[in-house]
Amino acid sequence: MDLRISSSTAPLTGAGLARRAAAPQAAGGNNEVGFSGALKGALQSVSAAQNRATDLQTEVQMENPSVSLEETMVAIQKAQIGFQATLHVRNRMVQAYTDIMNMQV
Length: 105
Hints:
By secondary structure, the chain is mostly helical. It is built from 2 helices and no strands.
């Protein structure tokens, strides 16, 4: 049984942008690169996963035969895991900010 999550549905797909922060920007491209771009992409993918889970929940409640309960539960779990990961990143960032502000200069 293969339990790997494909890259198109992973909650933090934007995290790979941080590794390519030093890569040159394509001509005419207006994509953000670096930490802010990676964070923005990750937040957008988590938001999309949550929206998809909500839409699937609504479809199951309306008894749409083309939407399975299993698919809905998996989408809900993916959204929950993505949200928890985002929460951990936020907490780490707040802790790092607090540590830096408390340093003696």
